[in-house]
Amino acid sequence: MRRWLPLLPLLLALPAVAQERPPRPLLPGVGPQDPRQPVAVAAAPWRALGRVQLEIGGFCTGALIGPRQVLTAAHCLVGGRSRQMVRPSSVHFLLGYERGAYVAHARVAAFRLDPRFAAAAGGPAPLDWAVLVLETPLGTPDRILPLMREMPAPRTPLMLGGYQQDRAEVLLADTACRVIGRAPHPSGGTLLLHDCAGTRGVSGAPVLAQGPGGEWQVAGVASRVGVRLALGAAVPVAGFAGEVEDGGSVPKPLAPKPLPGALPLDPAGGKASPRTPP
Question: To bridge 205 with a disulfide, which of 74, 155, 185, 222 should be the other Cys (CB 3.0-4.6 Å)?
Answer without folding.
Answer: 222
